Structures are given as structure tokens and as C-alpha cells.
Automatic annotation (TrEMBL):
This is GntR family transcriptional regulator. It comes from Cellulomonas fimi. One of its GO terms (molecular function) is DNA-binding transcription factor activity. The keyword Translocase does not apply. Gene3D superfamilies: Winged helix-like DNA-binding domain superfamily/Winged helix DNA-binding domain.
């Protein structure tokens, strides 16, 4: 896995790292069980502060993309399970709110499609 941080980007370095790792996991470039570099090693390799690399790993862990096994390191999580649970939770929250607003299924789905288009841009 090759990561790069663009210091000229308006996207914060931790977010660049988080996004690249998450994309590598989604694409299958990083498979479950793959051990990731230590925070210090990642920071050194990318020329960022250790706190920046640590924040990226924390956010990835909160999203269920990676898991930290104490002194053993950080590994790509058994994807699917955590990601699917998070997606289902978000979908259920939206479905409940759509019902509270009195939206019909077709209308609620239209809003989701519109939101996905906006998020893609």
C-alpha cells in the first residue's frame, strides 16, 4: 500500500490518510488481517506528525475499518461486519426519521439518491 499526503491540499492530512486507507480496504488492496505500519512509522514515511497518523487510525477504528490489538499493532478489520453494521444503523436512523416526516418510500429513496449524488461530488 502506498499512501501520500499532499501538503497543498485543502483536505487535512489525517483525512487524506483516512480516506486512502479506507479506499484501499474497499477496493480489496488491503485485505482483512493485514497489519498496518505503526503510527510512528506511518508518520515518518508520510512526513506528518505522529498525532496526525494517530488521528487517522482512531477515525478508521471508530468506523470499523481497522482494529488495534494493543501491542500487536493495527490491522485491517474483518470488513463487512463492522461496515455493514454502521451502514445499517445509519439507514435505520434515516428510515425512522423519514417515517416521522411522513415521507412515502419513493420520496425517501429519492432523497437518498439525491444525497448520494451530492456526496459523490
Amino acid at each position: 500500500m502506498i499512501l501520500a499526503v499532499d501538503p497543498r491540499s485543502p483536505v487535512p492530512p489525517y483525512e487524506q490518510i483516512r480516506g486512502q486507507v479506507a479506499a484501499a480496504v474497499r477496493s480489496g488492496t488491503l485485505v482483512p488481517g493485514t497489519r498496518l505500519p505503526t503510527v510512528r512509522r506511518l508518520a515518518d514515511d508520510l512526513g506528518v506528525a505522529a498525532n496526525t497518523a494517530a488521528r487517522a487510525y482512531r477515525e478508521l477504528e471508530q468506523a470499523g475499518v481497522v482494529e488495534t490489538r494493543g501491542r500487536h499493532g493495527t490491522f485491517v478489520a474483518a470488513t463487512g461486519a463492522a461496515g455493514d453494521r454502521a451502514a445499517l444503523a445509519a439507514a435505520l436512523d434515516y428510515a425512522r426519521r423519514a417515517r416521522e416526516l411522513g415521507l412515502e418510500d419513493a420520496e425517501a429513496l429519492r432523497w437518498v439518491r439525491d444525497a448520494l449524488k451530492v456526496a459523490q461530488a
